[in-house]
Each structure stands twice: as C-alpha cells, then as structure tokens.
Amino acid sequence: MWWKIYFWFMLVIVIIGFGDSLMKLSQWAFADFIAFIVGVLVMVGLYVFVYNKRLLPRNSWKMILWVYVTYTLLDLIYASTQIGVLSIFKSNIYDLSFFGYLFAVLISLPEFYALYKLGYEGSWGRS
Fold first, then answer.
1. What is the pTM (predicted TM-score) of this model?
2. Residue 84's CB: how many other CB atoms inside 10 A?
3. How many domains does the chain have?
C-alpha cells in the first residue's frame, strides 16, 4: 500500500513540475530536456514496479537506473560546485540550491530502489 501512495504522490509532483515547465518550453535548456526524459522513464519504472507490470527487459531497467544515478550525481555536483564543464546540467526553468537538489534526491530514493529491483533482481512488483 505504501508503494502505491508513494507512486501517486510522486506522479502528482512530477505532473505539477512538468506542467509548469511545459508552459516555458521555449526557455528549456538541454538539462531540462534530459530531466524530462529521465523523469518520464523513472515514473514508468516506478509504475511497473508498484503495479507488477512487465514492460522492458532487465537490462533496460539497469541502463535506466544508471542513467538516473549518473544524471542525479552530476546534477548534485554542478549544484554544489558550479564547475563550468557541468554547466550542461544547469536548468533554465528551475534554480534550486544544493539543499533543494538534495531534498529532491532524498524523496527519490524509493525510485532508485524500484529501478534497482527491476534491473538487478527482476522483481516485478514490491516484495
């Protein structure tokens, strides 16, 4: 039951966030497009995990997990250091502080877990 509540909570958060972002589509940076794609893939993975569906092979979920982990880490590094090379991760839509990004990562930890279970343990649904 907790997983379903979490899924619907996150879906509402994502819809509100992306709904606001879509109004500013002409202002999007590369990072905003990547965040949109990764966000959709993660929400699909969470849905697959929570509702015990089969959609993609395990290797696909592994790849999605590692793209999500890499993107999140690079985003956090850029937010905390402003390293010029990582400026590709600067959003034109949202300007969060390091702690804002950290909070976002903390509430996303169950998503990482669900993608891990799909990719590495082949768990289609909560255990």
1. 0.82
2. 8
3. 1
